[in-house]
């Protein structure tokens, strides 16, 4: 766990955090158990559920650094460009400060360290818990690792480092859009809207009067706002599993996530289904796409009176569920 590694660096590896404010970039909730003085830390976090949970531990949780900081601790991400952007942000917001980079091997910490060694003199390094933690002084800028908050992909859509399917439409979402009937109308929800590809397909239907794009990752939602220039859309930076729609929905269309971090987590998709059922009107319908092996049918049949598979292939299945049980009074 990254907190164990950080504690090892602090207690046995010679790492001393400087006095003054510290920024934590990409810290996960487990890191709250590290021996760091949380009251002087700003937690920089854009994923809504993690942002909310951090609010219980840290005095300030922000979506962007305010700085200047005396130091920063960067947790690596699986997406290399996102890790680079975080380190560059850390260097920028803690000029001359102490930068700590902490990550698992499976999150690509080693190539990042290799690249950093060419630019900075490492002040220390530890290996622990299948990962590494290094620290250096931010004595020169890292401008070539800085990335704009969003940029156009080859198809001309705005996406950001680390967001789902940044290079172009996801094949599962494409399969869902192809199977979606034209008749969808009224108030529609897209739970886990990402940068907005599926939402745009839904909006091609004139009968759609309102579209609620619900997304936990703020950087993705900001891209959706840039991509969907349509007055029918309302953007919600929210955890879709607890989100309460401001109106009962006639339809929910979604490609729910099935990973929490690196771990496959079918319970997350099931929580999305429960949220869809809760937010749908009595005659409302759900359309969703899922990897074929994901066991969503028992949850659907528990929560909806009619469930059918309307398409798919050996990789995906497209499921349609109608008439939810009343979960919301
Ligand atoms: C499989 S992607 C689908 C994205 C988009 N709808 C598309 O079709 O390209 C699932 C999305 O759900 C988001 N997500 C994950 N957990 C979430 C949560 N608890 N609440 C809302 N969105 C979440 C992810 O950030 C990701 O953008």
Could you please describe the fold and organization of this structure?
The chain is α/β, with parallel strands linked by helices and 329 residues long. It folds into 2 domains: 2-145, 3-Layer(aba) Sandwich (Rossmann fold); 151-324, Vaccinia Virus protein VP39 (Rossmann fold, 3-Layer(aba) Sandwich). It contains 9 helices and 18 strands. The protein has helices at 2-12, 48-54, 80-93, 109-117, 171-179, 197-203, 218-227, 266-279, 297-303, and strands at 22-25, 41-44, 60-62, 71-75, 98-104, 122-128, 131-137, 151-152, 158-159, 186-191, 208-215, 233-237, 249-254, 259-260, 263-264, 280-291, 304-312, 316-324. Strand 14 (259-260) and strand 15 (263-264) form a beta hairpin. The chain starts with a helix and ends in a 5-residue tail after the last strand. The structure holds S-adenosylmethionine (SAM). The site of S-adenosylmethionine has 21 residues, from helix 6 and strand 11. S-adenosylmethionine is lined by residues 49, 164-165, 170, 173, 190, 192-194, 197-198, 214-217, 220, 239-241, 255, 257.
């Amino acid at each position: 766990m990254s907190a164990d590694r950080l504690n090892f660096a602090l207690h046995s590896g010679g790492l001393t955090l400087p006095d003054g404010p510290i920024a934590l970039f990409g810290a996960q909730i487990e890191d709250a158990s590290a021996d760091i003085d949380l009251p002087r830390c700003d937690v920089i976090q854009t994923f809504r559920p993690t942002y909310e949970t951090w609010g219980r531990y840290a005095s300030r949780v922000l979506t962007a650094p305010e700085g200047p900081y005396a130091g920063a601790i960067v947790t690596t991400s699986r997406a290399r460009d996102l890790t680079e952007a975080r380190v560059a942000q850390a260097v920028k917001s803690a000029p001359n400060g102490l930068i700590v980079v902490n990550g698992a091997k499976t999150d690509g910490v080693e190539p990042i360290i290799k690249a950093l060694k060419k630019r900075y003199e490492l002040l220390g390094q530890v290996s622990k818990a299948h990962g590494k933690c290094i620290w250096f002084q931010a004595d020169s800028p890292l401008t070539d690792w800085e990335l704009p908050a969003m940029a156009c992909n080859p198809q001309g859509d705005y996406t950001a480092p680390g967001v789902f399917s940044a290079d172009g439409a996801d094949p599962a979402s494409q399969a869902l859009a192809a199977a979606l009937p034209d008749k969808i109308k009224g108030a529609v929800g897209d739970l886990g809207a990402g940068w907005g590809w599926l939402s745009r397909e839904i909006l091609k239907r004139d009968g759609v009067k309102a579209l609620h794009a619900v997304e936990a990752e703020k950087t993705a939602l900001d891209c959706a706002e840039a991509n969907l220039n349509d007055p029918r859309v309302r953007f919600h930076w929210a955890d879709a599993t607890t989100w309460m729609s401001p109106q009962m929905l006639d339809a929910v269309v979604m490609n729910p996530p099935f990973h929490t971090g690196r771990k496959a987590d079918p319970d997350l998709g099931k929580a999305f289904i429960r949220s869809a059922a809760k937010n749908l009107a009595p005659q409302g319908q759900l359309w969703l796409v899922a990897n074929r092996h994901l066991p969503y049918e028992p949850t659907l049949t528990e929560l909806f009176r009619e469930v059918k598979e309307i398409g798919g292939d050996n990789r995906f299945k497209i499921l349609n569920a109608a008439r939810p049980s009343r979960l919301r009074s």
